[in-house]
């Protein structure tokens, strides 16, 4: 049986300084995050110490003080998320989630954190200066920054099998995960005539498989940092996706991918091989084809389309669900909800894509850009169209074009606001978040797979969290309720 | 083919969509057009004043 598809999303946000001040994006990112954290009046450093197999002990262990980076801004929030400066961007990594819907909620909470950070920074900056954040992946000048998904997988699954079956999914899922982009930044391929394409990111992928994330980006990234028990788990680090604002798009991106990975884990494809002859070419073909009918060469011979691949995957998934069930993506109902949405979306893409303008980013963006172009009689090269593209992703409520669109919500806004500070209840993020809520001043550092406590006179004490599904509310609520101090907690854990 | 089987699959979602598609669309179409017009009016109001400068100045460092 496939293991639970614990998942998360890391988003690097675009950042822009407005006004006469320092336009250094690293400094601006630090100001942004510091402003937010200062207003929370809670701050916990992130522990950069790598885990090694030797540290994989159960219970907790006394250890020497870990090295904690201090020159970069790093914070762990009480919802279990990490919020920090990565390269020259503010990055928000959601806490570990157990279902696609829950991850939609935490991804949206991340947007709210960034919006509140802009407001907090605005209170600190001189008049006339502002830091503005965009949830997108491209500056339209050839520079891209990432939105990465992470999925828990069984270490025993051969990586070659993952690559074989996940590549056709990553190439074809763009038809609902794309965030849309005016123009193209592909350096090769002679596609200068692309007016609008499905994906922000497709132009930037040059390899099928590899370790890189910033150069020669691969469709399948081989970074192998499980942030969990490395004997049992792999964390599939997916760098090929777009940042989505549309909740339905995020839901499908995560929900369908989790099911596809479960099928790969259970070797459900059998002899079925949807491998593409030229995946890197195909990812651009799909992104550049608004008719969704571009033939893609299959490795076995013959052709298919992105829609054809997705229909085949859906059929496989229906049979998989009937035979194996979908508990691995949360529970049966959560899985069935993904299947229903997936089918309805493919049907709509096939018959009337415009009907998804309230559900998918690329369709929503395309509709307003086409409408605006027609109204003002603009050429595709007009800067106003690119400006609309960028401003779609602006996270300021007063400026965001996305916020003006009648998009379908999957999560209640009250739940999103709560998720800014409350952790998910059914992953280890719960333990991390609760400890930070109660004893932030005693938490010296935190990492995905450990918490380090500083009780004052003693050496720092590390609590390993190598199991992503331990430390849930069901596991630790009673324990935490019975402890009035971190010292008591550590005593209980060590006993 | 798999595709055809799936399209034939009876489902309540599908039935609802078919009903919607079969209904006279002029009212709905006009309503959608009016909504889009309102949205475009708003975009005219909030779009960055100098689009060319805004686009030119939006330069990011590569990330990841």
Descriptive overview:
The complex is a heterodimer of chains A (495) and B (64). With 495 residues, chain A is α+β, with helices and mostly antiparallel strands. In chain A, 38% of the residues lie in helices and 16% in strands. Chain A folds into 2 domains: 411 residues, Creatine Kinase, Chain A, domain 2 (2-Layer Sandwich), CATH 3.30.590; 70 residues, no CATH class. In chain A, the strands form 6 sheets. In chain A, strands 4-5-6-1-8-13 form a 6-stranded antiparallel sheet. Chain A has a 4-stranded antiparallel sheet with strand order 3-18-17-16, with helices on one face. A two-stranded antiparallel ribbon of chain A has the order 2-7. Chain B has a domain of 34 residues. Chain B contains 4 helices and no strands. Chain B is elongated. Classes of the chains: A alpha+beta (495), B mainly alpha (64).
Provide the descriptors you would attach to this structure in a database record.
heterodimer, A: 495 residues, alpha+beta, Creatine Kinase, Chain A, domain 2, 2 domains, six-stranded antiparallel sheet, four-stranded antiparallel sheet, 38% helix, B: 64 residues, mainly alpha, 72% helix, elongated
Order of helices and strands of chain B: HHHH
Instruction: Round the mean pLDDT of chain B to the nearest integer and report it.
Output: 72
What's the total count of β strands of chain B? Answer: 0
Strand order of the largest sheet of chain A: 4-5-6-1-8-13
Radius of gyration of chain B: 22 Å
Q: Can you count the beta strands of chain A?
A: 18
Lay out the secondary structure:
The complex is a heterodimer of chains A (495) and B (64).
Chain A: E1 7-12, E2 14-18, H1 25-40, E3 61-62, E4 74-76, E5 82-86, E6 89-93, H2 100-124, E7 130-134, E8 147-154, H3 159-172, H4 174-177, E9 181-182, E10 196-197, E11 205-210, E12 217-221, E13 233-238, H5 247-265, H6 279-288, E14 296-297, E15 303-304, H7 306-324, H8 332-351, H9 361-376, H10 383-392, H11 413-419, H12 429-439, E16 443-447, E17 450-453, E18 461-464, H13 473-481, H14 486-494
Parallel strand pairs in A: 11-12
Antiparallel strand pairs in A: 1-6, 1-8, 2-7, 3-18, 4-5, 5-6, 8-13, 9-10, 14-15, 16-17, 17-18
Chain B: H1 2-8, H2 12-22, H3 26-46, H4 51-57
